[in-house]
């Protein structure tokens, strides 16, 4: 049931409006407030869908009340009521997002028409949100995939984050869950557990790995929150098949723009799954190998993983050998250096698995007796990994990217996710994201957006179609979001673009 709040310092005005509106719209719930201060309090408790606000009231006037109400609930809509048709009031009201205004006294038909129009808009938005809620799981998975393995255009990230149930904070961190073989069916239970905790977004399950972007809650320490969530997730497993379950937890980072570093840390934290406690923080992983400063070491790690993703195997080989040489020059313990190399190669296979490349877990066949043997054995393992990588790419059909493009163009009006595309062509979501960047120079969200905007531009040439119809026809569920994306892509609002197109036709 829609809720409406009438605000006016004159009781006869409030009562009169309620009688008119209750008769015209019997299904709405109507409340009253006699001044601006009470209106702010009532709106906070009631959360009305629509407020009819008198402007001239003693104490807090209507515009001040609207401003305060919108600061805590920006989705409430307002109709302004005034006895004065004053330009300054109208200008301020427009800035505050007031939908319409009524002059005192107004005819009954004018009141019914004005309020009916806004109520219809609210009802349509509710329907759009219901559709949106059904797509949220897809949105959540795609946001995680794009943040960890690609990039999201700023307009998309802002809007997609706003659509999700979980509020993001400036303190995200990543948890990587390793599933044992045969336990992948628990994915949906893990997702439900994270959703109930209201603390994070769950990504796509690829192989036996599942990434989660979590957000530190105010007043809760990072370690206690992450440990609690890890224990909750691990409680879902079958005790009899506990082997293979493990959760790595990356450090808290400054913002979503830096979350890939936390993801890589979470992978490193999963290296030793034989620990009695089946989760580990990256900060608890002992530093091995080189004595170089930690920030520089982290930068090298990130560069190494990016080179694996991009298939720059000559660079990968060079960096591993340089690291071994660096440790040798510093007089580092040989066994610790071998462990460090193994850690890098082990996590590299995880990165390859993200892209659908199957490769054996790298293991040294013996303990190196000197640095020369360590270099030789490391080169052998790198060669095996490179062979697996290149064989995988050779097996892919040359027209895979063309198939995906054609599918997106044809189905751009639908809710297409990376997971759905992956199922269509038998590839992992991360690999598809990587292909887009390599082959087309854009990520899949940007390509999908371009398809939708191009279709919208063609439809705007038809004067019979409303902008709202076009919004839904090209695959968007919310007209304001469509307008924002369109203006970002075209540098004109949909209305401005349509006027230009129809003006040229005339």
UniProtKB/TrEMBL annotation:
SMART domains: HTH_ARAC, REC. Residues 3-119 form the Response regulatory domain. The modification 4-aspartylphosphate is found at residue 54. This is AraC family transcriptional regulator. It is found in: Cytoplasm. GO terms for cellular component: cytoplasm. Its main location: cytoplasm. Residues 402-500 form the HTH araC/xylS-type domain. One of its GO terms (biological process) is phosphorelay signal transduction system. GO terms for molecular function: DNA-binding transcription factor activity; sequence-specific DNA binding. Pfam families: HTH_18, Response_reg. Keywords: Cytoplasm, DNA-binding, Phosphoprotein, Transcription, Transcription regulation, Two-component regulatory system.
């Amino acid at each position: 049931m829609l809720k409406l709040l009438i605000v006016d310092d004159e009781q006869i005005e409030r009562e009169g409006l309620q009688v008119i509106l209750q008769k015209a719209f019997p299904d709405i719930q109507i409340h009253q407030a006699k001044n601006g201060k009470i209106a702010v309090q009532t709106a906070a408790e009631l959360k009305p869908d629509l407020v009819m606000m008198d402007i001239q009231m003693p104490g807090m006037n209507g515009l001040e009340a609207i401003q305060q109400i919108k600061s805590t609930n920006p989705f409430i809509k307002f109709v302004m009521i005034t006895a004065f048709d004053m330009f300054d009031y109208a200008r301020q009201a427009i800035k505050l997002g007031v939908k319409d205004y009524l002059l005192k006294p107004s005819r009954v038909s004018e009141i019914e028409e004005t309020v009916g129009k806004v109520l219809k808009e609210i009802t349509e938005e509710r329907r759009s949100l219901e559709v949106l809620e059904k797509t949220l799981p897809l949105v959540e998975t795609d946001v995680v995939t794009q943040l960890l393995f690609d990039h999201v255009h700023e307009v998309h990230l802002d809007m997609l984050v706003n659509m999700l149930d979980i509020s993001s904070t400036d303190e995200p961190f990543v948890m990587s869950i390793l599933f044992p073989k045969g336990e992948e069916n628990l994915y949906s239970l893990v997702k439900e557990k994270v959703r109930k905790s209201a603390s994070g977004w769950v990504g796509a399950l690829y192989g036996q790995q599942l990434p989660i972007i979590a957000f530190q809650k105010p007043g809760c320490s990072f370690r206690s929150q992450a440990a609690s969530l890890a224990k909750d997730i691990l409680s879902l497993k079958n005790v009899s098949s506990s082997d293979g379950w493990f959760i790595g937890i990356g450090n808290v980072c400054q913002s979503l723009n830096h979350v890939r570093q936390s993801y890589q840390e979470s992978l490193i934290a999963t290296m030793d799954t034989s620990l009695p406690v089946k989760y580990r923080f990256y900060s608890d992983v002992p530093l091995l190998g080189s004595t170089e400063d930690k920030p520089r070491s982290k930068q090298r790690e990130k560069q190494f993983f990016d080179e694996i993703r991009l298939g720059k195997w000559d660079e990968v080989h060079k960096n591993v050998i340089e690291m071994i040489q660096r440790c040798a020059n510093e007089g580092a313990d040989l066994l610790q250096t071998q462990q460090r190399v193994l850690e890098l190669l082990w996590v590299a296979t995880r990165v390859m698995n993200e892209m659908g490349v199957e490769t054996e877990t790298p293991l040294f066949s013996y303990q190196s007796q000197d640095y020369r043997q360590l270099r030789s054995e490391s080169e052998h393992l790198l060669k095996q990994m490179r062979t697996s990588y290149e064989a995988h790419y050779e097996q892919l059909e040359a027209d895979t990217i063309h198939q995906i493009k054609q599918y997106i163009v044809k189905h751009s009006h639908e809710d297409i996710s990376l997971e759905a595309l992956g199922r269509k062509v038998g590839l992992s979501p991360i690999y598809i994201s990587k292909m887009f960047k390599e082959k087309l120079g854009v990520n899949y969200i940007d390509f999908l957006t371009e398809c939708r905007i191009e279709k919208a531009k063609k439809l705007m040439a038809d004067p019979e179609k409303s902008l709202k119809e076009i919004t839904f026809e090209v695959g968007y569920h919310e007209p304001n979001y469509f307008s924002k994306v369109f203006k970002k892509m075209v540098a004109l609002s949909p209305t401005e673009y349509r006027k230009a197109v129809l003006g040229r036709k005339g």
